[in-house]
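Entry:
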Amino acid sequence: MAAAGSPPPHNVATAVTLTWVRLAVKLKLDRGGDGGDKLQQSSQIWYGARALAAWIRAGGTPQRRMPAHALKLRWHAHWFEQNWQAQTQRLQTLAAPDAPVFILGMWRSGTTVLHELLAACTGWNTPLTWQCFRPSTCFITRAPTEQAVVERPMDEGRISTLGPQEDEFALLLLGEPSVYRGFIDPRRLPECAAGLWEQPGGAASLARWQLFVRGIAAQSADRRLLLKSPNHSFRLPLLSSLFPDAKFIWIGRHVGELLASNLRMWRAMIGLYGLWDCPPGAIESFLREALRACTQVLARCLEELAPERLRWVDFEQLRADPRGTLQRMLEFLGVDAALGADATRQAPATQAAPGRARLDQALAQVPIHAGSRETLPADEDAQRLETLMAGARRRFGGASA
């Protein structure tokens, strides 16, 4: 039997696909010694859509030893496409989310903790880890019954199978252009970055991702969609046009700390997923380009975006006053924090937990780690970004305004 809300196996091909999907999910999500092993096995980013496989093969023979690498790429890509097509028929009938909420900010700004807190406070639809790492099957199979938890490779945070996750990983595995391809082949990180800064394909380059988020939004039609990806910061003008009623929350952090923390993150992720060695200086050069690209996006926001659509928050503000910061975020999003009701939706009263209790529960469940206070010296690019961040605080409601 297909999962609730998925299309019935109306022909032999679909039935075979569903059988294979269930077997793959069992092998990859239920295999191994402990929960961490199971989650690690289920979250490899090499094996996705045909476009991702082709991009990886274009890099040549990996320096990292991968038994049967070429065969695995083709096998996984073939079944990924079969499974995705089995989902597409239903996903194409779904409406686009009308008022999604996007959490933005450079990598290592605090986007993850803000995502987890808002998801816990609101109960809104948001992609979960197992869905983001299994985007071709997540709408035709049931969620894993077992919760697995692992530590993040770059800090003391934790990743859980059924916890909120960054939808960029789904976008990557679906074969859309993503800078996270650079985790796999850091030699081509400049190529990946240019695609993010310039977005030459526009909305067409995110066609599969748009279907994926429709599927997430349709899980509960009376709840809003909450998405988080630092990469969406650079896509903000495009997302604003795709979703005219969307609202954005941008979290900022001292640029020197951002750079130091990003060096650790990119080194850790490339160490975990890289099939080739990272050229000396490649990450540092990429991060400088990222600062300049972020500066350009923020400058556009200050010129073009109304304060009603974007709210600025500083990571230090979230750490120092998590309750007050969350309450202000909820008010900006049209949620009555005192009653737990979403003013933008006519949700049944049974779905709205008392706001105070839900807020308390979220703060108790989601730790806000201080992170490393290591910093790198500011240069001209960093200083320009700091200046624009100060302007964003004033225009979009930061604590320092």
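DSSP finds 17 helices and eight strands in the chain.
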